[in-house]
From TrEMBL, chain A:
InterPro entries attached to this UniProt entry: PurS (IPR003850), PurS-like_sf (IPR036604)
UniProtKB keywords: ATP-binding, Cytoplasm, Ligase, Nucleotide-binding, Purine biosynthesis
Entry coiled-coil feature ranges: none
Entry similarity comment: Belongs to the PurS family.
Main location: cytoplasm
Keyword Ligase: yes
Species this protein is from: Halorubrum aidingense JCM 13560
First-tier enzyme category under EC: ligase
Protein name: Phosphoribosylformylglycinamidine synthase subunit PurS
Organism domain of life: Archaea
Record's catalysed reaction(s): N(2)-formyl-N(1)-(5-phospho-beta-D-ribosyl)glycinamide + L-glutamine + ATP + H2O = 2-formamido-N(1)-(5-O-phospho-beta-D-ribosyl)acetamidine + L-glutamate + ADP + phosphate + H(+)
Function text: Part of the phosphoribosylformylglycinamidine synthase complex involved in the purines biosynthetic pathway. Catalyzes the ATP-dependent conversion of formylglycinamide ribonucleotide (FGAR) and glutamine to yield formylglycinamidine ribonucleotide (FGAM) and glutamate. The FGAM synthase complex is composed of three subunits. PurQ produces an ammonia molecule by converting glutamine to glutamate. PurL transfers the ammonia molecule to FGAR to form FGAM in an ATP-dependent manner.
Any one GO molecular function term: phosphoribosylformylglycinamidine synthase activity
Automatic annotation (TrEMBL), chain B:
Keyword Cell membrane: no
This protein's name: Phosphoribosylformylglycinamidine synthase subunit PurQ
EC number: 6.3.5.3, 3.5.1.2
Organism of this sequence: Halorubrum aidingense JCM 13560
Gene name in the database record: purQ
Primary subcellular site in the record, as a coarse category: cytoplasm
Lineage of the organism: Archaea, Methanobacteriati, Methanobacteriota, Stenosarchaea group, Halobacteria
Keyword terms, alphabetized: ATP-binding, Cytoplasm, Glutamine amidotransferase, Hydrolase, Ligase, Nucleotide-binding, Purine biosynthesis
Length: 83, 225
């Protein structure tokens, strides 16, 4: 078994309104920043032991499917690195 | 009929639900989620509140509590189940009903009376109304915007699973009458069975005559009577 860190990034599907991101963008613009768009995402770093990186990625993906993301509104991706 | 009002850590409308049901002559009791459903449960309320502090997403944690497997089993057996506000979020997160409730378009918590148009009158929850009736019931939520993918929305409408839509006092379903940016002004939906429903507005806050602006919500809870 090897120690891995699986990073699960959960973001709203394109086209789903994100009022918090909009509010954050407006606050940045009030501070004088110029930007075209802003998207927010949740990131989870999961430390786990697995036989190989693929198994670690599969397990992290299942965590996303079953809890970390809501498939109605979210997309997610998983990246695995040695811990 | 004994109605179990399932209490999670952070539920805060459980007592209100029991009181409203008692007012309607319905035997109801609060059930702590870790204790499981009592054997004589023949109705279930998932009450409002802030279960698990709305961690991750409102309702996400409670939806995965072991008691929800019992709730799903009971629902499949035809036991009437209603989720109100946080209970609606729990219901959708657990897959009892389609779609998702997420951050209000205003990005604010909103606590206000709203009008709902009754879209189906042939369900246990709406037998007291006529289709097209307008009822006044309050909302109190920060994550009540109903979202559902385009295809799933088309299915929802085609299958006639929309129970309530936000409307104005005359029953017109307009953007102005939509408090939170919900897709298609949807305030409440049915699950696979008509005996399973969720809605963001609080019928238990519009049941007791001395509390609030209307008793229009009583008809919904009369499903248990």
């Amino acid at each position: 078994m090897t120690a891995y860190t699986a990073t699960v990034t959960v973001r709203l599907k394109r086209g789903v309104l994100d009022p918090e991101a909009e509010t954050t963008q407006q606050a940045l613009e009030r501070l004088g920043f110029e930007l075209s768009d802003l998207r927010a995402a949740d990131q989870f770093e999961v430390d786990l032991e697995a036989a190989d990186a693929d198994e670690a990625a599969d397990r992290a993906a299942e965590m996303a499917e079953r809890l970390l993301a809501n498939p109605t509104i979210h997309d997610y991706d998983v990246a695995v690195a040695d811990a | 009929m004994t109605v179990s009002v399932v209490q999670f850590g952070g539920s805060n409308c459980d007592r209100d639900a029991v009181r409203a049901l008692a007012h309607l002559g319905v035997d109801a009791e609060r059930v702590w989620h870790e204790d499981g459903l009592p054997a004589d449960t023949d109705g279930i309320v998932l009450p409002g509140g802030f279960s698990y502090g709305d961690y991750l997403r409102a309702g996400a944690m409670a939806a995965r509590a072991p008691i929800m497997a019992e709730v799903r089993e009971a629902a499949d057996d035809g036991v009437p189940v209603i989720g109100v506000c946080n209970g609606a979020q729990i219901g959708s997160e657990s897959g009892l009903t389609p779609g998702a409730f997420t951050t209000n378009a205003s990005a604010r918590f909103q606590c206000e009376p709203v009008f709902l148009r009754v879209e189906r009158a042939d369900t246990p929850w709406t037998a007291a109304y006529e289709a097209g009736d307008v009822i006044e019931v309050p909302i109190a939520h920060g994550e009540g915007r109903f979202e559902i993918g385009e295809d799933a929305h088309a299915d929802l409408v085609a299958d006639d699973r929309v129970l309530f839509r936000y409307c104005d006092a005359d029953g017109n379903v307009t953007d102005a009458a939509n408090p939170n940016g919900s897709t298609d002004n949807i305030a409440g939906v049915l699950g696979e069975r008509d005996s399973v429903a969720v809605l963001m507005p609080h019928p238990e806050r519009a049941t007791l005559p001395d509390l609030g602006r209307s008793t229009d919500g009583a008809g919904i809870l009369e499903a248990f009577a």
